[in-house]
Amino acid sequence: MNYKNEQNGSGTSGYWAAQARSVTPSCRFTPTSAEDISTAVVKLAHSSCKFAIRGGGHMWWAGASNIQDGVTIDLGLLKQVNVSPDRRTTSVGGGARWEDVYLKLDAMHLAVAGGRVADVGGNNYFAPRVGFACDGVENFEVVLASGKILNANASNNADLHRALKGGNNNFGIVTRFDYKTFEQGKLWGGLIVYNYTNPREKLQRLQDFTKLSGAGGDPFATVTNVYQFTAAGPSIIIYLPTYTKAQAYPEALKPFTHIPQPQILNSMGIRSLTNLTILSAAAYGQRAMFGVATYSNNATLIANILDIGQEAFNGFQPKGNFSYSHALQPISKAITSKAALNGGN
What we know:
The chain is α+β, with helices and mostly antiparallel strands. The protein has helices at residues 18-21, 34-47, 98-106, 127-130, 158-164, 199-214, 254-257, 273-279, 299-315, 333-336, and strands at residues 2-3, 27-29, 51-54, 71-74, 81-83, 89-93, 110-111, 137-143, 149-153, 173-180, 182-183, 187-189, 192-195, 221-230, 236-243, 265-266, 269-271, 323-328. Strands 12, 13, 14, 15, 16, 17 and 18 form a 7-stranded antiparallel β-sheet that branches. Strands 5-6-10-8-9 form a 5-stranded antiparallel β-sheet. The chain has a 4-stranded mixed β-sheet with strand order 1-2-4-3, with no helix packed on it.
């Protein structure tokens, strides 16, 4: 138990956004086991003490994973990554980040369906092959509000297993995730940056790719498309095309890699999963916020949304290091169809 600024585990530096770092708990508890958390939850409940749980520390708003004048349960020391003897399951502690996981698995030529950013998440690079990251969780070890420790999977506590795969939070504190694991070597990916021109034509390329992917297109190909407006420089369009084989410039991704327009930056290359996710990492300690929405696969609709965002950004008359980004991650039928094969979500 660490009081005020006498912090082990992650401390304030473990939070992505400045808003979360601004909160000061009365003490920060850094457990090393599910049993530690069970004991703490029971004692906190009996004392009516308010508390928060920090897993990865990425949520931006101040009270999401930290608490003012209460107890923050910091899972930063629960970051073990253990692969089963048959190499089919990887058990990951509730405080681990994806870089911790990928460093271990890359060395073994293995992978799990996890986040596309080293310390956070995002739709995984293997999604057309295996579905969402939550579809790959075979089991959750959970501490309930009563302090009871249980496992939630397709056979035991199946309702909780399904709820934890996307039903928001407050079901319990997850202390371990057991992920399906598969063979994986190096892959091809990086960033390609263009000036902000012809956004509607580029959105049409994304619409066509998403439709083709859902109709049986290349399951090794994914792309994220970012439209970024900045106060300090010109607006840009960023592509993150990825091919989960060690093959450069595959046919499926040429609509994004071969646009007839000068490239400001091209960092594409064959690399490890760890290296690729580090490439996408965002800076820590800044004031930031984000939201998530789902749209139909319609280039015209999304172009109109981008126009509204750009108009709002310009209306702020922003200065300094201020930016607004709209990141598009295609979710094709090839991805959503995998949920039913894994107990639903």
